[in-house]
Amino acid sequence: MRRLRPLLALLLAPALVGCFASGGGSDAASGAEDGSRLRVALAFPPAENLSPYGADSTTLTRLGVIEGLTTLDANGAAAPALAASWRRENDRTWLFTLREATFQDGSAVTPAAVANALTHATKAKPAPAALSGVTLTAKAEGATGVRITTGRSDPVLPLRLSSPALAVLSAKAYGSNGKVDPVGTATGPFELTKVMGATAATLDRYDDYWGGRAQAPGIDVKFVADGTARANALRTDQVDLAEAIPVAQAATLDKAGREATATTRTTSLLLNTEKSVFKDAALRAAARQAVDTSALAKGVYEGYADAGAGIYGPAVTWAAGKRTEPVGRAKAAEPDGTRITLATYDNRPELPEAAQVLKQQLEKAGFDVALEVREYSRLESDALDGRFDAFVLARNTLVDTGDPVSVLASDYTCDGGYNIAQLCDKDVDRAVARAEDTADTAERQDAAMAAEARILGTDAVVPLVHQRIITGVGTTVRGALLDPYERTLVGTGTRR
Amino acid sequence: MRNQAVTLLWRAGIAAALVCAIGVLPWLSHTDPALTVLKARSADRDPTPEVLADIRDRLGLDHGPFQLLAEWLGGLWRGDAGRSWLSGSEVTPAVLQALGVSLLLMAVALLAAAVTAALICARTLWLGARRRLDGRRTSGSASAVLAALPEFLTASVLATVVGVQLGWLPALGWYGPQWTVLPALALGLPAGAVLGRLLDDLLPGAFAEPWALAATARGLPGHAVARQALRRCLPGLLPNTGLFVVGITGGSVTVEQIFDIPGLGRTTLQAALAQDLPVLQAGTLALILLAAVAAGTARLLARLLIGPALRDGALPSLHRPTPPAHRILPFAYSGLLTAVIALGLPRDPLALDTTERLASPTWTHPFGTDALGRDVLARVAHGALDTLLLAAAITAVTLLTGVLLGLLPRLSGALVDTVTALPPVLVALLVTAVVGSGDGTPALAVAAVAWAPLAAHTSALLRQERAALHLTATRALGAGPWYLLRHELLPAVLPPVTRHALLRLPGIALALASLAFLGLGAQPPSPEWGLLLAENQPYAERAPWAVLAPAAVLALLGALAVTAAGGVRRGRRRRGRTEPAPPMPESPSHTRELVATR
Predict the structure, then answer these.
(1) Do B525 and A246 touch (CB under 8 A)?
(2) Angle at A397 between CA A76 and CA A271, to 5 degrees
(3) What is the pLDDT of residues B531-561, one digit of tens each?
(4) A357 in reach of chain B (CB within 8 A)
(5) What ranges do the domains of chain A cover?
(6) CATH T-level topology, domain A4-65+188-254
(7) Which ranges carry the Solute-binding protein family domain (chain A) (predicted)?
(8) Out of B87, B97, B372, closest to residue A357 by CB
């Protein structure tokens, strides 16, 4: 037995090595001349093997891997990306002119490749969020053109094409069984080289990127789900960039090391307009008046949020200038100790705290509040069925397309798929429909704001705060791309 | 041999029943898997009917649970545990890799526990080898306090202080040996404290046996005697260690989260929440197998260590000389606890003031304030009654179940391992699916796990007791089995198991709070202790007092239970003295703590 021990140890050693997680490109990081690879901690581990059709697509755009035909500019308008320009030929047809670019596998970005990529996206099951309720066909047109025809008139098609889910990958990426593999097949400044399950990934610079060579030679990504752990990773200099630092941990970082960016995420109080207490518009008005949003922004979010102004927050830059007074608000009534249930979820740690503050504010106004806090997936179906009187929800208001109207349609119209407030109001439906049909960007924004005023007038929703997202940035890092749509993080100019 | 075959069949039956139960879980609990899968993939996605229909179609949910289950089981023969509903990748390699990580973590934690235990009993070993143990009090409260600390607290403190502020060891990740130290310590310290206490209680009994005296008289060196005493006591610890091993492999979710370790605990938790059934089934099966292997290994080791003696029935049950019981300490602890509660009760536990958030302790707020500016002292005091009453009620129920099932060791043996191995969240989901989410559900979910260590303890005591001489004598006098049970066995078994159950009280309070996120149990703003710990955890570094206060009262409760348990023992001893021979066997464990549920 004793003689066997060294042998046993030899046998055990590789088994033990198999029990550790493979580090994100640790060999490349140890190279002395390659000291400036970026190390990034991301919050959401890939759920679907980095398939571009789900939420993982945002991870890919944040790392500068994939691109679509268009992108969003700072004002939320469509800007050129792989398409250099576009024009609307008629109601249902658009012609996009491609720029000269190559895929990371060396092949050229041809109209046929683009049409192929878009066709695959339309056939994906379940359909990508940006394509829900939309049919489109893409055909190659000449040497540089792609003609896209939509089933119905779609005035926001260029915005829609900026969605990460409609990224263009080379033909090699699309497997026979519907799987899509973005490793080495995209067009962005960084190329995925290795994906270690849901724990890490490595990326190298793609030298032939059309927009110029990136400054960082590569990226080592770690997926760290726990917010405290991400903050710790940054503090111990294990990473250079850590996204989505929880408010509770922000104070542990140096002031220089935390960047707060206003996001399009609005936390609001949704009141159930269909059942029991808040069927009464006067009581909804009483609840709205009871809420003090600045106490939430300062006390719960420690200033990493702006007090609620409307459905769209300050990150939607054009909204504040076009906002009009809410239309048709009811006069508040006395709640007289009416009992209500207020539900929220604990996946975002600030929400239960906000709900407790709300509870106190509502009770001061005369409601009797019972809280219900669960994990989100255990709560959603009950919320959609209207089982709660009130619900605190953090919602991205420019959802997947960057179009401001789609969130109004899904959340506040009779046919909306995510109508937690159970709102069904003729005036609101009409105003939203008008906005949906408006093509011109500025007019569409005006119509969206008119619909917002209508919705706020029903008091079905009380905007509480507009969240800011905190990104931990290492002291030596320059040029991190922090945008309100949470679609970018690392770009060609990011380095350390 | 036949017995073993029956046990094996029973084990397989339990495993099969569990896998089937998981397979029909969503249909029992009326939670649509398509919805939970969608939300796990992308939280922002609207659950429109078309999207859900697509997912249902992809996963084949319309075929119903039984066909899905049959397909999954069909693939299992070839080592193919299907594809994850979430990511679509193969389950077998993913679960095996997570299991490997968890096993390594468990092994290092076991090592840390062994070192901790060794430090705790070093003094007893040292004194025992020199035969100077007589009448010394065993180290008491310190290890009980260590054992009652919630593991997330040890983990956050280690990560922040050692990992971040001192920078001695990496604070997160799982890339090599130095990454294992902190998580292993977080898991191993409390468990080692329990095991150490257990061993420390057994050792004096071994040193008091005639062979030890003879060996010393013969001139054997002290360290040789100590080694034999250890060997004599270790088998008594093995069942406990086995439970510890299986418990932390699937149940150390918090530590895995804080240190970002890709282990089986997180994998099964995510799968349970998303209702990713193939992963959940495979993970559960792996854990059940591990439980069986651990139980088998424990038995094998026991046979290796003291095999011949067991076979010959030449092993008298261990008993220790009566230790002097604590007289003052229990009163001091309960006095302190009462004082804290009395001081806090007049204060308002719900009054929010966000301008006063995370304030340090002052005269107005002696324990400081929490993240919403509430007075921590008031919350601790107001939470005490709810917490203690509910935990006490659950303890009573588990004691009853544990003893009853412990009387049937062949039935409960496999159940104990299996229940311990299951991730707590899975047990809660199963219980909720069966009885619905009513007021009693959380208590039931906790009780469904908490009886296991008590049953194991009862069986272990019974085995020893049955071999005792006075039983043979009573039997020879014509006593029937019922008489033996009522007048001899139960009186010997109940007191130590009751002490054990008392020791688990703090653990039960913590377990109750850990179910809150499923919508079970106390909801904020209730000041229930477990909830207090959970809601203040993110602020542990900025406002340590908000976590330390509830942790301290829990630890105080643990220390109170240990020292008061000494009182129970004393009463028992007096009765034992009326019987001349042999002395009542001392329990192998009255500190068999919450290891199992951790």
Answers:
(1) no
(2) 155
(3) 888 888 888 888 888 888 888 888 888 778 7
(4) yes
(5) 4-65+188-254, 70-163, 264-468
(6) D-Maltodextrin-Binding Protein; domain 2 (3.40.190)
(7) 79-418
(8) B372
